Amino acid sequence: MNTIRHETADTYGDSRSGARHGKRPAACTRTFGCQQNEADTERLRGQLSAMGYALTDKPGDADLMLLNTCAVREHAESRAWGHIGELSHWKAARPGRVLVLCGCMAALPENAEKAKRSYPHVDILVEPRNIDRFPDILRSFLRGAKHGRYTDIPQAPDYASGGYDAPRRGAPPRAWMPVISGCDNYCSYCIVPHTRGRERSLPMGGIAAEIAALIEKGYKDFTLLGQNVNSYRDPDGGGGFPELLRRVCENEGDYLVRFMTSHPKDCSPALIEAMAGLKPVAPHLHLPVQSGSDRVLDAMNRGYTAARYLSLLDSARAAMPSLTVTSDIMVGFPGETDGDFEDTLSLTARARFDMLFTFIYSPRAGTPAAQMPDLPREVKQRRFERLLELQNGISHEKHAALEGTVQRVLADGYEPGNDLPLTARTPGGRLARLDGGPEWVGRFARAEITSHTTWNLFGKIIGEG
Ligand code: SAH
Ligand code: SF4
Ligand code: F3S
User: Fold this and answer.
1) H/E element holding 324?
2) Mean pLDDT along residues 416-424
3) Mean pLDDT of 379-395
4) Confidence band (pLDDT; 50, 70, 90) for 455?
């Protein structure tokens, strides 16, 4: 295979380098943010590997460092800038190293400016919409690189082989499967439509075929991904998201299909019917509600009311009695009053989510909500803590109800030395730590649940599942 030849470590006197004369250069990746970013990193790693890079987990060994970043809240961005800052030493230790800033942060013009001004050791910015072009972007950067640091750059030989950007996935049994990118919803607080652009769906036939191939390789738990997955529409005319579920579930074998993120305004009766009727579809719905106040939901541009959300939950639970429901709620949206927040608490108490991801509103430049006055930090923090306390009680009760039951689980990891070394997930996505041997990894099993915390279930394997 054609590879990029990297100048020797000795040339630059960096004894920590993993790159040796004539050997492949090494690349290291770090991922922040959501599952879309995880899936994007798998693709980027596939591209790097096809370009001839060896993949390493150690930045000290790497010739190229790629950070795949998130811009959804200010905290996510400041953490990433912190990492970027630290990498100035990494970069200075060996000229010729390449620092790539990918992901949602790289899509925002103000961040490109900031990198240029304050972090000049960032060499390349690649926004999510340009991931397909990453190998070309990297090659043209390397071609123009100063000091003749890189030579023998391949002329995209691997495009022809068809395997060019086959993602480098984690080990079975779990696999991410992006099906739609971008978001057209423009919730008034959210940066994602600005970073990922308009919705684009991947062809249904290709998704189903890839899942078939992964089942052959031992993958058993597929998550169909999109910021707004229910608005999937096959570009080849095969239909919408319920049809995609049906098509994917035509594959033979024992496997689970889950999907995220669903938007309440697009979560149709047809979707619930498809979920309930298809055996491989996991009884799990991640359905972010964001607020329990109709006034706030309207200001957020969410397109539903609290009552509509709750009736959607009721009908989904009626169709699937074992359904696990998880959600996202944001507190402290501009103008949220104590009364609005009480509505959020009532909705939470009534919805009884199995798990809730709670966030404090963070203004994002360029979004309509950022024009509105932000609430005081202490008000937001207090509301956040009250919501968390309410939900922790509910999660605890939900887990307590599972004690003494037998659950079907899929084991996905083994940590030797741990009292309960197996990690596994229920079809609803709950994490279980179990007593059992490494031979269970990648297999369905029956597990008796013997104790719990707010976040985990504990128990032991009692047989094949
Ligand atoms: N597409 C999904 C989620 C996208 S981002 C949806 O529609 O729900 C994941 C979560 O981050 C959101 O559900 C929201 O709760 C939170 N979030 C998004 N923008 C935010 C912001 N500006 N401040 C705080 N939390 C935010
Ligand atoms: Fe953001 Fe709303 Fe799109 Fe979700 S649906 S990604 S919250 S704009
Ligand atoms: Fe973050 Fe982008 Fe995902 S902003 S949440 S990485 S879509």
Assistant:
1) strand 324-331
2) 94
3) 97
4) confident
CB 190 near ligand 3, within 6 Å = no
pLDDT at residue 136, rounded to an integer: 86
Ligand 2 atom closest to the Cα of residue 183 is 3
Q: Can you give 372-434 as a three-state secondary structure string?
A: CCCCCHHHHHHHHHHHHHHHHHHHHHHHHCCCCCEEEEEEEEECCCCCCCEEEECCCCCEEEE
In angstroms, the CA 272 to CA 315 distance is 8
For the beta carbon of residue 157, count every other beta carbon within 10 angstroms. Answer: 13
CB 228 less than 6 A from any atom of ligand 3:
no
CA distance 205 to 200: 15
Split at pLDDT 50, 70, 90, the class of 2 is very low
DSSP run (H or E) holding 312: helix 306-319
Task: Judge whether residue 179 has pLDDT over 90.
Answer: yes
- Looking up tokens 């922040």 gives 32
- Which ligand 3 atom is at minimum distance from the Cα of 72? 4
Q: Whose CA is nearest to atom 4 of ligand 1?
A: 227
Atom of ligand 1 nearest to the CA of 290: 15
* Token output for 201: 């769906």
| Summary mean pLDDT of the chain | 90
CB within 8 Å of 45: residues ≥ 6 apart: 27, 29, 55, 167, 168
154, pLDDT greater than 80: no
In the chain the first and final C-alpha atoms are separated, in Å, by 43
